[in-house]
Amino acid sequence: MNSTIHLIGINHRTAAVEVREKFALTNFCSPETWAIPTGGDIGESLILSTCNRVEVLVVGDGDKPRLRALEYWARARGRSVEELEPYLYQYRNDEAIRHLFNVASSLDSLVLGEPQILGQLKAAYRKATQSHSAGTIINRLLHKAFSVAKRVRSETGVASSAVSISYAAVELAKQIFDDMGSHNALIIGAGEMAELAALHLRQAGVRRIRVANRTFARAEELAHRLGGEAVPFDQLFSHLVDTDIVISSTGAPDAIIHETDMKDVMKKRKHRPMFLIDIAMPRDIAPSVNTLDNVYLYDIDDLKEVVEEHIAERRKEAVRARAIVDEETLAFHQWMESLTLQPTIVALVERGESIMREELAKTLHRLGPVDDNTREALEIMASSLVRRFNHEPISFMKDRFHEAANPEYTMQAVDTVRRVFKLK
Amino acid sequence: MDWTDIFSYLSLALYAPATVAALAGVLGRSVRVKKLSCLLCTAGFAAHTLWLAAALATGAFSAVSRGFYLLPLSWFLILAGLVMARRQHMDIALHFAAPWAFFLCACALGFASTPGTMTMAGPLFVLHLAAIFVGVGVMAVAAGAGALFLWQEGAIKRKTPLEGFRKDLPALGALDKVNAMATLIGFPCYSLGVLCGFLWARISWGTFVSGDFKEWISLIILAVYALLFHQRQALGWRGRKPAILALVIFAASLFSMFVVNTVFPTQHGF
After folding, report:
1. Of B50, B149, B44, B49, whose CA–CA distance to B97 is shortest?
2. Cα–Cα distance measured from residue B133 to residue A313, given in angstroms and rounded to the nearest whole number
3. CB pairs under 8 A between A and B
4. CA–CA dist A306, B167 (Å, integer)
5. Helices and strands counted in chain B (H then E)
6. Does the beta-carbon distance from B171 to A290 stay under 8 Å?
């Protein structure tokens, strides 16, 4: 392998947030302020800088690109390499490829399976292509990383279950109601988590959101942010009749919704199912409400348990995901090695074409004036002869490459072909 | 080998892989395999229709035999599954119907040579059978949806996270809609079927009721069906209770078809 891939970086595991912000390269990716310019030792480069990680990917001969990248990175942030080194992880070739695939598949993220990292990696790649710092290897590597991430998401459950409380509540609502667009939600209280859950509900397409709060002005404020409507708190129970999803997070010292209240509400709404999410502490809704038919009550601990089980499930799935990453790393490694054949194949084809052009010119000269059809037929024949002639030596090299466990055997085959065909 | 044989083998040849694909698709959570199962099931239904038409055209079922009994019953079951799959976008209804269709068709083929004991006397008799089959067919799909509802709802109530293929199953609301639709269609059809049966008995046997055990079980099923219909329409029953009643009706229908018809002394014992 002539080109070496280096990946150096810091992340949430190796460096605290104060360190990560010192070495962040967020605004250094535009062509004008490109922190790791290509040319010289560095053939290709890419920077990924997010709140949880800063990673620099460089490609070039030997170890020099890594050293230069380190110098540029430290200098760009007005620091020394010695300050940066204690927090660094450094990978090369297969380990770098594997790490990048893990990052793209969100197997190295703080929240396992979170989807944002793929978008951030795509943005980083876009900046690298705009800055012309992505070449053959980074282009191929990043495209492969995106496809590995897609494969991991579709073939494993690493990203399938909700791992935030507010999102878990919405996922549960989808298991109860078939069409979110025909259901109404009511937010009781104006807590931050209730707002977040309501936002998720809005994104899930819930038809109407109402907000009830003891302070009407706060209800109006939240309703405005959510694109909903504020309702008076004392009319809570009449609004519950046509509400399907309730998120409650008031600061009330005791329960505000009891089993008897809900019995009346359910009768009035003809037993249409209701999903109640109680994220208040102390709880707003009496736990016995869950015993009623078609009423599903989840409190903060229930949701936390759901989230924890989902996290455990993701961890289990991550083992399968890592097997996919290993498989794809091996495939990429083989592609990298196949690059060693590339110069010889190109030289062989060019030599063949040059001979073909010379011989064709001589033949046409000898024949004198010929019509276009004859000329075209001769050209096709000559080009076909060259292609068929080149086929055997190219196959010979490729076969040795695929069969040989030791790269030296591949190099011997390449050397033989170069000597036989007198390629420079 | 005549057309009836050809279409019967073709139906089974399509329902068998549809059943395997339904199981593999649901358990393996493969959208493609589930779609393949629906396709095979639809193709099987087409062959099944031709089988039924050929059997009626050749006069193979001029008398009611066990084979005749099971063939249109399974046809109505798949039809109910297809309607639910299309109307409610619930392919699971077809995945549930496929194994039943395969089983009933295989039984119909096995009993094809059983001699008939009751002649197909007139439109009232045909209407009696067709309406009963629609009532039972839709309730079979509703029972499947009901079983899934109880399973899923139990987990949600107990706060047990749904894992594996259970995550792909329809929402409780969708499963309940199947029950609502089945009740709305099934109860009037089943009532009509029972009524036609009594009228036919009056014309053919000279009495509405002959004390046959089959008549009693049919009336019990009709009573439970009526309860389900009334509670859904008038009191707005939803969820668990209708799901349980659908299972009761379907279990009683199976008992009526496979136990009463074969074990008890009855005039329906073909």
Report:
1. B44
2. 45
3. 57
4. 13
5. 9, 2
6. no
| Secondary structure (DSSP) of B154-222 | HHHHHTPPP-GGGGGSPPHHHHHHHHHHHHHHHHHHHHHHHHHHHHHHHHHHS-S----HHHHHHHHHH
- The CA distance from A109 to the nearest CA of chain B, in Å, is 23
The number of beta carbons lying within 10 Å of the beta carbon of residue B85 is 21
Q: How far is A292 from chain B (nearest CA, A)?
A: 10
Mean pLDDT of chain A: 87
Residue of B nearest to A173 (CA): B171
Q: Between chains, do A302 and B159 touch, taking CB under 8 Å as contact?
A: yes
Quick check: A225 pLDDT over 50? yes
Contact A296 B157 (CB under 8 A): yes
Asked whether the beta carbons of A219 and A231 are under 8 A apart, the reply is: yes
Query: Chain A contact for B170, CB < 8 A?
Result: yes
The Cα–Cα gap between B68 and B107 comes to 10
CA pair distance A34, A47, nearest whole angstrom: 9
Q: Is the ipTM of this complex over 0.95?
A: no
Q: pTM for the full model?
A: 0.68
Distance CA B73, CA B193 (A): 13
Q: Does B95 touch chain A (CB under 8 A)?
A: no
> What tens digit of pLDDT does each residue of B176-214 get?
988 898 899 999 999 999 999 889 888 887 887 777 888
Q: What is the pLDDT of residue A1?
A: 44
pLDDT at B252 over 60: yes
In tens, the pLDDT along A68-79 reads: 999 989 988 889
Whether A177 sits inside 8 A of B173 (CB atoms) is yes
Return phi, psi of residue B189, to 5°. -65, -45
pLDDT in tens, A179-197: 888 999 999 987 777 788 8
Terminus-to-terminus CA distance in chain B, angstroms?
A: 25
Active site residue A29: no
Of all residues in chain B, what percent carry a pLDDT higher than 70?
Answer: 91
Identity of the amino acid at B33? V
